[in-house]
Write a structure and sequence with these properties.
239 residues, six-stranded antiparallel beta barrel, four-stranded mixed sheet
Length: 239
């Protein structure tokens, strides 16, 4: 059997998530997370997407390009288990796989050509910016959603973990961010409510300060008593 395969990316992801920290742990958990799939020539032909607008969602197959250097691991620590138990890599969706392939189902938000480039706009993404795209397939509710399927240790939809508030001092910056990126406030609320902190920090008492990046903006926030308060939103490196 020939085991040599070469895959050519058909495009690249432009995502609101420009670093791994803060990315939702599954697609659809942050509906306000928007992005676009830029499709490269010669795959950007309108004919190749004929009929796609009849589907609300699509599967995106991609490469965990930022994990390649880390290799694969036979066991990993799933966040859903608090990061305290190991499970086999094939029983998880970890990016540290023998072949670093990922798949996410996302909502279609329309197609467009801008500056001669072809984009498929999507929402509910959980994919890092600049991720190579290998393929796109339609989501088929009658077969992709199996009513009697079991979900193992991740059977239930995770509930929001944190209440999110904005300090008075950050509101002008929040308004400016909303002008640049419509829906930014909702995006930030949903990302923080899901509690992106590593599992080992979630039980710590007292205030803990954190930073994450969305688009080209750095956000500083503090957690105390299950409330995340946004302190600053600014361009530049996280201090």
């Amino acid at each position: 059997m020939n085991s040599d395969f070469t895959f050519t990316p058909i495009g690249i992801v432009h995502s609101c998530f420009t670093e791994k920290f803060g990315i939702p742990r599954q697609p659809g958990l942050v509906p306000a997370a928007r992005g676009s799939l830029e499709i490269f020539p010669p795959y950007d032909q309108d004919e190749a997407f004929r009929g796609m607008d009849r589907f609300s969602h699509v599967w995106v197959l991609f490469v965990f390009h930022d994990n390649i250097s880390g290799g694969w691991r036979p066991t990993v620590r799933p966040p859903r288990l608090g990061g305290n138990q190991r499970m086999g890599v094939f029983a998880t969706r970890s990016g540290f796989r023998p072949n670093p392939l990922g798949m996410s189902v996302v909502r279609q938000e329309g197609r467009r050509r801008t500056g001669g480039r072809f984009f498929l706009d999507v929402s509910g993404i959980d994919i890092l910016d600049q991720t190579p795209v290998l393929d796109i397939k339609p989501y088929l509710p009658y077969t992709d959603r199996i009513a009697d399927a079991s979900g193992g240790f991740a059977a239930a939809l995770p509930l929001p973990q944190l209440t999110v508030e904005f300090s008075d001092s950050v509101r002008p910056a929040l308004s400016a961010a909303e002008d640049r990126y419509p829906g930014f406030s909702q995006l930030l609320r949903q990302v923080l409510a899901a509690d992106p902190r590593p599992a080992y920090t979630t039980g710590q008492s007292g205030k803990t300060h954190h930073g994450l990046r969305l688009y080209d903006l750095n956000i500083r926030w503090v957690v105390e008593a299950q409330t995340a308060t946004v302190l600053s939103i600014a361009s530049g490196a996280i201090a």
